[in-house]
Specification:
Blueprint: E1 4-5, H1 27-33, E2 83-84, H2 88-95, E3 101-107, H3 117-127, E4 138-142, H4 145-152, E5 158-160, E6 162-163, H5 177-195, E7 199-203, E8 207-209, E9 223-227, E10 241-248, H6 252-264, H7 274-289, E11 292-296, E12 301-303, E13 316-318, H8 325-343, H9 347-351, H10 361-366
Parallel strand pairs: 1-11, 3-4, 3-7, 4-5, 9-11, 12-13
Antiparallel strand pairs: 2-6, 7-10, 8-13, 9-10
């Protein structure tokens, strides 16, 4: 299998369900696939995870120099902000699984308030199907003192990302320069996590976890990333990725991918968000770095953009395609309530498939959808 698409078929016709490698893969093949692993050991989706049970933007022409390639793993140009990672390595040792994987999310102060998104996010692990243990491996990144205090009140593993050259205490409105700078900063800490030899699964905090999503992540992939809608293009790799949910394995190539991604920002006019840049350069990552990218189909890694009405397969539900915190909270709470009703049923009743999820009506209205 060549670089690029993994976990399904890149053929003219349809989308195959993303596959999961079984535990009985030949040892030689595993070591071949993991030959670019940073540090010692082999990164796999370990049994510890299983538990018990867009927008396009006009980019300038790609520069020939100063961007990493498969043979040239130079660092990305220095960013505008001075970022420190004091205490990160020590915290990762406490949070990570035996196979050195950590679940990461990031929050602002408003999201950490009682009955806001962080409460819904953590509640998903508590009420999900065999995923309560995963909350012990969640690292919550905060960017100001208020969000750090709010995080520590409800979760033991919180990290304050210190940015000395930027005032992170003021409110950040969607689309403003400060907001965009904030979302780019998450790539700097993710790069550092990979460099320290840890895999990560980044999940936005406006995502409700219902089941274990790792069962749909292929160990072939350097990166597995969610989609807004897996039916919008004949090939999954041509669908718009949503970088609110993605897994990256710690390899030399994945570090080069994030460096390339961060460096590519300078090629865009205006103040592009990281998702726009990623969707524009993802085929470059495949061709230039030989990256293996797995698109995650919305049948399992779902969201409000491509709403899945049944609860028999969905692992996560993202409040994407939604404007306004109150709308996100309202519609995610409806999904959480429907999930509790679903899990209270007998297996026989569940198999009938008659229980559906309440449509995200407020979020749809916020987008002007009927």
């Amino acid at each position: 299998m060549g670089p690029g698409f993994v976990g399904g078929k890149l053929q003219q016709g349809g989308h195959a369900v993303s596959f999961l490698l079984g535990a009985a893969l030949p040892t030689a093949l595993l070591f071949l696939l993991a030959s670019d692993r940073l540090g010692e050991g082999l990164s796999t989706i370990s049994t510890s995870w299983r538990g018990n049970g867009t927008t396009t933007a006009a980019a300038r022409p790609r520069p020939a120099a100063n961007t990493p390639t498969a043979a040239d793993d130079r660092p990305a140009p220095a960013q505008d902000h001075e970022v420190e990672f004091a205490g990160l390595a020590e915290l990762l040792r406490k949070v990570a699984t035996e196979d050195r994987t950590v679940i990461m999310t990031s929050v602002n102060e408003v999201w950490t308030r009682p009955n806001s998104l962080l409460d819904i996010f953590l509640g998903g692990f508590r009420d999900g199907e065999g995923i309560a243990h995963l909350v012990n491996h969640v690292l919550i990144v905060t960017v100001d003192a208020g969000s750090f205090r709010g995080c520590k009140a409800v979760h033991p593993h919180c990290y304050l990302l210190e940015v000395r050259s930027m005032d992170m205490n003021r409110a950040k409105t969607f689309g403003t320069r400060e907001y965009v700078e904030m979302i780019w900063l998450k790539l700097s800490i993710q790069q550092r996590v990979l460099e320290l030899g840890y895999n990560f699964l980044f999940t936005d905090a406006d995502i409700l976890w219902l089941r274990n999503p790792f069962q749909h992540i292929s160990v072939y992939a350097d990166m597995s990333c969610s989609l807004d809608n897996s039916k919008m293009a004949p090939a999954l790799l041509d669908c718009e990725n949503n970088v609110g949910f993605y897994y990256m394995k710690s390899t030399n190539r994945s570090v080069a991918m994030i460096k390339y991604w961060r460096a590519a920002r300078a090629r865009f006019d205006g103040n592009p968000i990281e998702q726009v840049v990623f969707n524009t350069i993802k085929h470059e990552l495949i061709s230039d770095l030989r990256a293996r990218i797995q698109p995650l189909e919305t049948e399992y890694i779902s969201g409000f953009c491509d709403f899945q009405e049944r609860l028999d397969k969905v692992c996560t539900v993202h409040a994407n395609c939604c404007m306004g915190l109150d709308n996100k909270v309202n519609d995610l709470r409806n999904v959480a309530a429907d999930w509790k009703n679903y899990t209270s049923l007998t297996p026989e009743v569940r198999k009938k498939g008659s229980i559906k999820v309440t449509p995200p009506s407020k979020c749809r209205k916020s987008m002007g959808w009927t």
